[in-house]
Design brief:
The protein has 146 residues and is mostly beta strands. Strands 1-3-4-6-5 form a 5-stranded mixed β-barrel. A hairpin with a 5-residue loop joins strand 5 and strand 6. It is globular, with a radius of gyration of 19 Å.
């Protein structure tokens, strides 16, 4: 099975172009946060930047509604391809071929000025925003006994 699910923010606006056959294709990059461990070194990257590609109607959706900074949930499949660069060298690319995109944040949280479709609140309830102690405060590394 080849299935990828990612949540993160767009690192740049979608770049939408048309193929020679007239199909729309959108290329974009998503920044996905890493969980930082206690042993992490200062200056160590805390996000992975992954390439996404969307085709036809999904590409048009990306062009119309997504902007740099928009928090999204992406579903797709991992694919690898190769091409010959202008200097004649062979290049390899691994990217996520997008099959579905959902907004992961309401307009009130969207720093890029995106739109909130459906008019409802999409915020997670407080219990789903992270682990909580029995008396209500957030759990820190010092609270974990191991």
């Amino acid at each position: 099975m080849n299935k990828v699910i990612l949540m993160g923010r767009l690192a740049r606006d979608p770049d939408v172009r048309s193929t020679q056959s007239g199909k729309s294709v959108a290329r974009m990059t998503i920044a996905v946060d890493r969980r930082v461990s206690r042993n992490a070194q200062p200056g160590q990257p805390t996000a992975d930047f992954l390439n996404l590609v969307a085709w036809e109607r999904m590409a048009e959706f990306c062009q119309n509604y997504l902007r740099k900074g928009t928090k999204i949930l992406v579903e797709g499949r991992l694919q690898s391809r190769s091409y010959e660069a202008q200097d004649g060298s062979k290049r390899y690319v691994t990217e996520v071929s997008v099959t579905d995109i959902e907004f992961a944040e309401s307009k009130s949280h969207d720093s890029s000025g995106g739109q909130n479709f459906g008019g409802g609140q999409f915020d997670a309830p407080p219990a789903a925003q992270g682990p909580q102690q029995a008396f209500g405060g957030p759990v820190t590394d010092d609270d974990i006994p191991f």
